[in-house]
Amino acid sequence: MASEDHEDISLDAAEYELGTLDELARARFARALVTDESASRALDFWREHLNTLGLQLTPVAPPPEVWERIETELDAESTESPAAASGSARYQRFRRPLVWQSVAAVACAAVVALAAVLFVGPQRASQGGSVPAYAAMIRDAPTGMSWLVTVKPHSRKMVVRAIGNYKVPSGKVLHAWVKPANGSPHLVGALPPSRGKYSMKVSKTIAHSLANNAELMVSMDNATASKPSQPQGRIMWKTPITRRTG
Amino acid sequence: MADREQLAEWLAATAEGDRIAFQKLYSATSSQLYASVLRILRSPERAQDALQDAYIRIWQKADTYTPERGAPLTWLMSIARYRALDALRRKRPEVAMPEEPDMVASLLEDEQSLSPVEENENQQSLDAVNQCLQTLQDNQRKSVLLAYYQGLTHQELAEHMNAPLGTVKSWIRRGLTRLQSCLAQYS
Predict the structure, then answer these.
(1) Which residues pair with A199 in a beta bridge?
(2) In chain A, which residue's Cα lies nearest the Cα of B48?
(3) pLDDT tens digit string along A187-223?
(4) CB-CB: which of A15, A55, A83 is closest to B77?
(5) CA of B73, closest CA in chain A: separation in Å?
């Protein structure tokens, strides 16, 4: 039975890559990709083999305009780095039900106490009634640990999703900072190192900084009773904060 | 064509936001990807749109590639094919390039349509796939190749091959099962 299931998954992966699955089956397999590692492995297998077929075609040079169009599009999105853009893609992934539920199941009170000042200045996007938000993704490449940070001013809330567990040395703490372009960093609070979803309020100063090509920085500082006014220890990660809508 | 390590290096640099590396990646791979999307969409204009979408996607997703998941070129090819299939499913072309009478057969038989093998870093996988395709029954092989190269759905394959839908589904499924068994021997 298990072997039949495995075969079905593999053949679904093959047809997913081939493009012959109908819409329903395609959606079902896409869901399996999120929860079932064997589906992901099967897809890698078929991706690798089936696409050698495409490599047998005689190459055809695209006209130069295509690259020019790509450059134009990248320039238009130049405020959004690949890391941040892929962070957006990850954000979509996190919204899939099974993953979302497992994240949401974790308590979210741990960091609230670290917030300094409530932000109460809702903003509205200029078009379509959509709501502006800001997002940043921190990823520690060696460990794969990631934090997705989103701020929705209208809800006055910053949400941190810690994807994994990061080992912080004893006596140390990770501090998150928002640093506006050409400005000094503002302390957001302690960055939670354990898997889960956390929410906190941000100060008005920090909220205003977000629109100013700000960066999210994380420092590793000595754990002390007082809040630091600037990073004391090593800067561990820096990433741009990008504006999103919706 | 750049080798596998070089492509992986450019992909990694692209993930860090290196536009020069991204341009090198594009220069080294776009002709291969364009050939594939052009086969599927059969309209240069639509194929160029799909290629543009594909590289924007590659720029955005470069950090999700890891060498353990396969060769960089097949990963890139997969993204380009998805873009082409999406475009194909949205709307069939009103004006298309003329369809070749038996394109798949010519692809397999015409040496001129194949890339020089010594340039291909994925040679081992390519040999395995070609060998294994020969173990499929004719209709199984033809339906798999038509689906891959032209992006045909089950229904379209049924019409193209003048066969009942269920039969075509079975050809595809059995063909892939056979292909999988054969490829497992090479892995």
Answers:
(1) A159
(2) A66
(3) 888 888 887 777 777 787 888 788 778 889 999 988 8
(4) A55
(5) 8
Question: Cα A52 vs. chain centroid, distance in angstroms?
Answer: 31
CATH topology of domain A82-245: Immunoglobulin-like (2.60.40)
Q: What is the pTM for the complete model shown?
A: 0.58
Q: Which of A56-60, A61-65, A113-117, B112-116 has the lowest mean pLDDT?
A: A113-117
Place of tokens 């990248």: A74
DSSP per-residue letters across B157-187 = HHHHTT--HHHHHHHHHHHHHHHHHHHHHH-
ipTM: 0.85
Q: In chain B, which residue's Cα lies nearest the Cα of A74?
A: B56
B34 vs A15: CB contact, 8 Å cut-off?
no
CATH code of the domain covering residue B66: 1.10.1740.10
DSSP assignment of A74-137 equals HHHTTTS-HHHHHHHHHHHHHTSHHHHHHHHTS---TTGGG--S--------SSTTPPEEEEEE
